[in-house]
Design a protein that fits this description.
Elements: H1 3-22, H2 34-64
Length: 65
């Protein structure tokens, strides 16, 4: 992948995940309890943040070359 594209994708994923993390509408999803929904949202957010960091680090690593 292009180094600039990796950095851009990484930053977009991190920003989107942090925005989704901060946004809390308090509604249940598919009838799940609030605790289960919070756990699910937290896991998805951390997964997206880690993928974003991976792309960001790959892009920065490619800048050295």
């Amino acid at each position: 992948m292009n180094k600039w594209l990796e950095i851009l994708v990484g930053l977009i994923l991190i920003i989107a995940a942090v925005y989704a993390w901060m946004y809390n509408n308090g509604q249940g999803l598919w009838g799940m309890g609030q605790a289960a929904l919070t756990f699910l949202k937290g896991g998805i957010v951390w997964f997206i943040i880690m993928i974003g960091l991976l792309f960001l680090l790959l892009g920065i690593s490619d800048l050295k070359d």
